[in-house]
Design brief:
about 300 residues, alpha+beta, Immunoglobulin-like, eleven-stranded mixed beta sheet, five-stranded antiparallel beta sheet, 9 helices, about 25% helix, PCuAC_sf, LpqE-like, Copper chaperone PCu(A)C, signal
Length: about 300
């Protein structure tokens, strides 16, 4: 029954032959899987169920894999207004004689800074680290892309933009028609970034201030303030110009975050140092405002191209 319920949580009850499992003592990891991410994606989500058949509680404290530069456990929580926000988890409890599910719209594993392209049917080695039982070697099977799309909408696209005076519903219908992309082509990179953010988020009654802007090659971090609140945007430049990959708070002054976004360790350390150096003269109160943004909102190129 426990196995059936675990498969049901992963949406596999009708096709049990797809499931695979791994054991370590009284622990069982059922069907670790990764929905196929979009081509060129720098992150992928992992799901599974961890069952604990012992009479003592257990904790999953870390996940490691050579698939990505960084692996984190996250949870998506929906507030009273129906807005979803993603938060990092330091550990996940697995009660005695119970299980913990990692599933779309809830707990999930984020493989950040992918080191290789994924294909359906690939088996990705990973190590789960438990507080008492130790390490368990598992393989995540790469499945169809349709669940990946569902994850992107449930866990990222509808995240809380309220700190930016910009609701999740508004994001899905962003009006980029007011931005003159041909005119932006003649601007410097900082001018393009400022125009992009202003054209996207500035509005009457809630003016947006963008500072400082820190560039390192094809990536940038921009601080923003609006209505007494603030945060940071991580931007990336491709053949079509700059776009906001995600918005967050204090994590965007951390080199480990930039490694997770695909930067090499040296560039990540330099970008972190440059962001901190650019913000330091602006004062503690200003930095606290940028740090106040809670969670992470992933936008990406598709978010910017939605209306084009």
């Amino acid at each position: 029954m426990k196995r059936f319920l675990a498969l049901l949580a992963l949406g596999l009850a009708a096709t049990m032959t797809q499931a695979h499992e791994f054991t370590l003592g009284d622990l069982e990891v059922i069907h670790p899987n990764i929905p196929l991410p979009a081509p060129g994606a720098m992150a992928a989500a992992g799901y599974m169920v961890v069952a604990n058949d012992s009479h003592a509680p257990e904790r999953l404290v870390a996940v490691r894999s050579a698939l990505s530069e960084r692996v984190m456990m996250h949870v998506t929580e929906v507030d009273a207004n129906g807005v979803a926000k993603m938060h990092p988890l330091q550990a996940v409890d697995i009660p005695e004689n119970d299980s913990a599910a990692f599933e779309p719209g809830g707990r999930h594993i984020m493989f950040m800074g992918l080191t290789a392209d994924l294909h359906e049917g690939d088996r990705v080695p990973a190590t789960l680290v438990f507080e008492s039982a130790g390490e368990m070697a598992v393989e995540f099977v790469v499945g169809p892309a349709d669940r990946a799309a569902g994850h992107a909408h449930a866990d990222h696209a509808a995240m809380d933009h309220s700190s930016m005076q910009h609701s999740a519903a508004t994001h899905s219908a962003m009006d980029h028609g007011s931005m003159d992309h041909s005119a932006m082509a003649g601007m410097s990179d900082p001018e393009q970034i400022r125009a992009l953010l202003m054209g996207t988020f500035d509005r009457p009654g809630a003016p947006l201030t963008v500072e400082p802007i820190t560039l390192r090659g094809p990536v940038a971090v921009a601080g923003w303030s609006q209505g007494g609140q603030g945060g940071r945007a991580f931007l990336r430049k491709d053949a079509d110009g700059w776009f906001v990959e995600l918005c967050s708070g204090q994590s965007l002054v951390d080199a480990a975050t930039f490694v997770g976004m695909g930067l090499g360790h040296a560039d990540a350390e330099l970008l972190a140092a440059e962001v901190n150096g650019a913000e330091a003269p602006l004062g503690a109160a200003f930095i606290a405002r940028l740090n106040s943004f809670e969670g992470t909102v992933v936008i990406g190129r598709q978010g910017h191209d939605h209306q084009h």
